[in-house]
What does this fold into?
Amino acid sequence: MDPENQTGVAEFYFSDFPPFGNGSLLLFTPLLFIYAFIIVGNFTIFSAVRLDTRLHNPMYNLISTFSFLEVWYTTATIPKMLSNLISEKKTISFTGCLLQMYFFHSLGVTEALVLTVMAIDRYIAICNPLRYAIIMTPRLCVQLSTGSCIFGFLMLLPEIVWISTLPFCGPNQIHQLFCDFEPVLRLACTDTSMILVEDVIHAISILTSVTVISLSYLRIITVILRIPSGASRQKAFSTCAAHITIFLLFFGSVALMYLRFSVTFPPLLDKAIALMFAVLAPLFNPIIYSLRNKDMKDAIRKVLCFRSMFNVSGSQ
It folds into this structure.
């Protein structure tokens, strides 16, 4: 096509949402409830760790960092999904689409790095407990958390800048629930072979984190099984159970989304995987961490009681 005859696309249309009034309101209510639960639940965990001095250690600081990231990770996509469900105009501007991709994936990469740091933290705590306090200092914990955020947000910049320079001349229908690399790149009026390069880059980063985390937990489990005391074994397992569950949920959905290369799924299954990746995995984070950990449950009760007392005093 002659570049001079190309008309730039100013906005994209989400074609996979039901028409307004045709079941969209039935989907809007549960999604709104889930989003509210994710925000309240993760902010409660974040507040509980910050307010309870007993939880001021690397493990809980990393949990609070992960919960804080989950809030913004879901905020990058779910509010737009809610808007699309109750709006007749299910569009997003070109700039808005780029920003949604950038923040969604930057926060996702940062979460993957934080999960990797959490696995390393548990590895040192269980496999080298005598040196744990010396190695995992509060300063190092802050540096690792900060470094994960900086690397996560810098890593995606070249990709987003490159996509912003591509010509988009139509069609403008995104066959996904949110802006994502592959659906957007398929709309570019240019050679899309770079999609394979994108897949390889994502696969390498995902598999690197998965490998480090898997090796850490395999070593942890080996060490735990050698502990002679049953009570000590159970306590060691309980400290890792929540991390392993979150790891499986997060990277399981990531693998289904980004490690399938040329494999195509039916549209309905594709939507279900996208929902699991963007909505359901973050939904279970506050549930798992609040139910599997007694110290966390006690700290959350204190936060909730404090809020109740504040509300009562404020109403008097």
Summary: The two ends are 71 Å apart (CA to CA).
